[in-house]
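Many groups now describe folds with learned vocabularies. In that spirit, our science desk offers one protein's residues alongside their backbone shape tokens.
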Amino acid sequence: MIRHRPTGSGHPYSVDTEQRWPVVPEAGSTATLGLRADAGVVAVACTLEWRPDEDTGASPETVELSLERVATTSRGRVTDGGHLASAAARLARSTGGWQTRTPELRFGGTYRYRFTATREDGRTERTRWFEFRAAQWRPDTDAHPRLIPGATEVLHDGRRAWRVRFALPLAAGEHVTGFGERYDAVDQTGLMLDSVVFEQYKSQGAERKTYLPMPFAHVVGGDGWGFHVDTTRRVWFDVGASDSSRIVIEAETDAAGTVPLRIFDGTPTEVLTQFLDGVGRASELPSWVFRLWASGNEWNTQAEVMRQMDLHREHDIPVGSVVIEAWSDESTFTAFRDAQYEVSGDGAPHRLSDFTFPEDGSWPDPKGMADELHRRDIRLHLWQIPLIKMRPHPAGQVAADAQAAIREDVLIREPDPRGGTRPYRNRGWWFPLALMPDLTDERAARWWTEKRRYLVEEIGVDGFKTDGGEHAWGSELVYLDGRRGDEKNNTFPVAYAKAYGDLLRSAGKAPVTFSRAGFTGSQAHGAFWAGDENSTWEAFRWSMNAGLTAAASGIVYWGWDIAGFSGEIPPAELYIRATQASAFVPIMQYHSEFNHHRTPSRDRTPWNIAERTGDERVLPLFRRYATLRERLVPYLERSAAAAIATDRPLMRPLFFEWPADPAVWDAPTEWLLGDDVLVAPVLDEGATEWSVYLPELREDERTNGWTDAWTGERVEGGRTVTVPTPIDRIPVFVRGESVAGLLELFRE
């Protein structure tokens, strides 16, 4: 076996051994050409032909290049490496990498190349021919009056454009923020980043990658403005990192080299309004979404789910939603585990009457469970993944579904070696080689969601956790409308949440989806959580950044896994501080990762944290804040409606209200919850006091000033105060004339 894949796996942050890099090399530079081969290959050569364009007058040339063995990398992982001796041994006995570098590349022609591998027995094997053209940056017209003159360039290979680069002015004292959900910092000034949907499992802040990017930003602190690079392709931003006086933007383009740029003037709210007018804004979700959400990946039986709900009642901790992740057969993701039914050979949807649920099975009565949860005023959400699982080899209903998906032509496709296309096989780490429905196509989306209709209409499911929307890798993927992955991959998670929201709406229910991934346009589709994270103080801080930048980008309904979901349980102090902060974000929920049912349990329930840590403060304090959250629901409902009507975020960064106040950037993780509640979470271990910046209020609000929600003490704005933060208290202040009604909510 020998394989060359010119554009690689599509991993946006890694170069694979068997690809060409750069994919579009620049004239005057060189390119790496790589191959993967089985252990029987002992030598590889590459024939590289240069065919100049007719108008150049140059002569064709051919050069033979020898490849050398290299460590094999694929999808961001090194498969050969470590100590040199052991790496050499692995290279000798397993699939290996081979690479060479081209001579300096020229503009004005086409390069054609193929590989010839020689085996131990002398036999040879060749790949097909591959082509590319070297491109060069050349000046282009400044198509927008706000662009810095003379800074616009296009990367062109003589036949088509590939990228465009331009610059916007950045004045001293201006701060740039937004860009979708960003974990590392609220203020991205002085940094570089990009916008590509990516599954970064944990440490998103350190890696500076995100599930939910948007090529949109606010520029705050000067005259007030913002911008949206109105494309679904990848965009890179240099936000004053290389030159503090400019924002340099580089974007992938269509062949013509066009990228629409929208400039918005005004306050942050006015900028956000103009942005949302073009991409869509949230619709109101029912008030029950503001109650506590409970989840654990090991709650994988009806008995366990109900046991956990009973424990909520036993410990007097109110709960409004339960998310069941491990409910399905882990194959179709449409049938409850242990359910008995006849395979639908044509892939047609099942109805509830088609299933029998064994009394001794994991889910003996799903509808009865849903009905009982509803009697307790608890909503039910089921986990989903937008893939048809193909490993291990599919059988039964999933095999029929796969065959039907191919027959009905509802799948994303990829080029095959013969010049046609074949179904795309997932290249990500999760559910590798799975098939992927094209949920950006309405017909395909209906085909997919109809299989889940009985869950909504007959079982009584209230919403879906629409997980894993990041699996479309590769610029060469082919969607049902004919467009390619470079243009469509970022849009997939938007369409994914929309498809499930449409299913819920069609059944007369609110479109409550709970997504991790998204892009521009996701604002209109359900709720979001910050994804997979460890239980650390650092991850806590990153998650607060994520919520605030998502809010600045128009996401209204947002939450995170209280104190992280992965690894060993959080210490009691972290769990309590994270619970306090979560009581004041739009979605309050806890969740825990699968741990193979090992003991002791790693569930993030307050009773498990209390038992494991031995800290008797955990349960009463969690109860206190969950109960406070219940009292806040009417305020949150009103505030969410106002946020959607006015585009002033529900979880509102301070710069939205005080854009001219430079001091708000010294308190980037404070926020207003609605109009009237200022929240300053305690983000450091062992803190017994916390500095809180209280901005200057309007003249008509100054009589009442800011009021400490816990003590009733009134404080003037326009200054930083230090407040005591015993373990039972998060700094919260109420604004101006709103004191009377809101302070009552903080009284037990």
In short: The two ends are 70 Å apart (CA to CA). Residues 79-93 have pLDDT under 50 and may be disordered. DSSP finds 16 helices and 40 strands in the chain.
